[in-house]
Amino acid sequence: MILTVTPNPSLDRTYEVPSLDRGEVIRATGERMDPGGKGVNVSRAVAATGQRTVAVLPLGGAPGALVADLLDQQGIEVAPVPVAGATRSNIALAEADGVLTKINAPGPELTDAERELLLETVRQQSRDASWIACCGSLPRGLAPDWYADLVARTHAAGARIALDTSGPALLAALRERPDVVKPNAEELSEAVGRPLATVGDAVKAAEELREMGARAVLASLGADGQLLVSDRGAWFGSARVDAVRSNVGAGDSSLAGFLIAGGSGPEALASAVAHGAAAVRLPGSVMPTPADLDPAAVTVTADLPADRALTEPVS
């Protein structure tokens, strides 16, 4: 079982539009409503493969009730933490050329009691978990070191934890040595405080995160592929993608694929790449099923293309 923790979940509405023109009336060609949040997406991706997952998340108001109902419809067990504030609602506008514009609401502010209840719920639900995936931004009311506290408690209980967050929350958590951290290129650049222009730059940045405490780094480099750097070595993975429909949740699908495959080594990286590539070919934040995967399109190598320029360098 993979347990996910989403401190700031959302109700996500995605509209497909021909193009985004400011000040104009735009008629959508398609729309979806999904439970949102990075940890929620990881649970959805795990459930799409037929494996068990439990989602821990604070929920409040009508949007929170709808999130729980949508997850239940997808066969995902929910361990809700009741909060007084309403769960946030987000909007994504997906253009025909693959460009995505997102409007994310701030979400409710958690009280001290709600913060402790969230930690206690994770403790209660984690007994049977092979991995705990903690993902996304922190809501108002949770200090940047909240993830660090959660990592420490998880290790004290003998469990493994994967962390997908950024900024001060990521840096604070590194001191507790999370088993895996999963930054994208922008988050990786922010963490080391310098630009990334090549795959080699990303590898060096991932190694620095390991020096700061991360036991392994799974880094998403967008269309260029993914990196895995751990004490077992470093690998680079990529996949052919003919057409991108939506990249919403692609990184979360990658993390799910990585954990499903054991969370270690080149085989897990290949699974992460296959899941991420499948996700971008699907609309909105739809998570891929095994039938959507194309393992033959994935390449994983220990011969790192250090000099390869990133398609979207981070300055």
Automatic annotation (TrEMBL):
The record's PROSITE patterns line, in alphabetical order, gives: PFKB_KINASES_1
Q: What class of enzyme is it?
A: transferase
InterPro entries on file: 1-PFruKinase, Carboh/pur_kinase_PfkB_CS, PfkB_dom, Ribokinase-like, Tagatose/fructose_Pkinase
Does the keyword field hold DNA repair?
no
| Residues covered by the Carbohydrate kinase PfkB domain | 16-290
Statement: the UniProt record of this protein carries the keyword Flavoprotein:
no
Enzyme Commission (EC) number? 2.7.1.56
What is the reaction catalyzed? beta-D-fructose 1-phosphate + ATP = beta-D-fructose 1,6-bisphosphate + ADP + H(+)
Please report which protein family the annotation says this sequence is part of: Belongs to the carbohydrate kinase PfkB family.
Question: What is the protein name for this chain?
Answer: 1-phosphofructokinase
